[in-house]
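Issue 218. Parser rejects a valid record. Input:
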Amino acid sequence: MSAERELVHVFVMPRLRVEAGGIGRSRSSGLAPILLMLGLILAAQAGRGAQAEDTGIIGQFYSYLPAAPDLRLPEINIPFWTDDLKKAKKAYKNTNYDRALKYFRRASDDGNAIADWYLGHMYRMGRGVPRDDAMAYSYYSRVADLYDPDEPDQNRLRVIVDSMIRIADYQRTGAAAAGIPQNAPAAARTYLKIATTYGHPAAQYALGIMNIKGQGMNANPQQGLKWLIAAARKRYPLSEAYLGELYWSGDLVRQDRTRAVMWYILASQTARPDENPEILGRAQTLEAAVTEDERLEAAARARVWDEQYPGERRLSAAEQ
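Output the parser choked on:
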């Protein structure tokens, strides 16, 4: 089943027309309420299969947003490290980045991977320090090198996997100013490993982009759409927004303004305002560009998706 046909089976809408070139919809909408209810029933049935898939260690990664600063601290046997990390995390949540930097650096000097991960995040985002991709890459590399698939501490494993994705992100695009060369094939191998082992949505999203654009691999747009949908099922906002752009422009799929707005409604629900403000702005722009009927239908479709694949609103660091 193609990625576009898979979407049709999720959204049971009035007189959907599936064609080889994409998805089209007639203007008739008289049966919309009845078919919408049918869609909710089918979505619930499909969800039972997804729930069975989301068990165990992989399931713990499905709702995990990379680089979210709200991880519980792992059990560390050295009190000095624990005290520094607690102080650093509290300062980070309060956006007192100077104080957070001080304590994270102290813990990092003692070899703590959690502190290194936070420091990578701070240098990547320019929080408390000037943005420095070279420093971020260095800290993320220190954490990624600790990867062990049998790691018993799930919080530690999460930040290690996230760091591996961050390294792959830099490799996919390169960062000339930071002296980081582009290495798309290496990035693709990391993404594939993490996507298939942990079902991580950031890796699935990246594989979707790389398949569509032919980065580090032969172009395969249909496979790319499947990866994007997989990440969207885990409510990854970048994937939802990218699908919205595809439907708005008509690239790879039949142009559908209603479905484009639907994807942006979903993306705006799960995007972090401090990390992806462009998603919120774009969602408002598209909603303002469609008719009221299109906006209402998009909102209804978004509710159907959210019923089947619920997402949590992502708080900014300042709100946490």
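Fixed in the parser; the record now loads. The beta strands are 16-19, 22-25.
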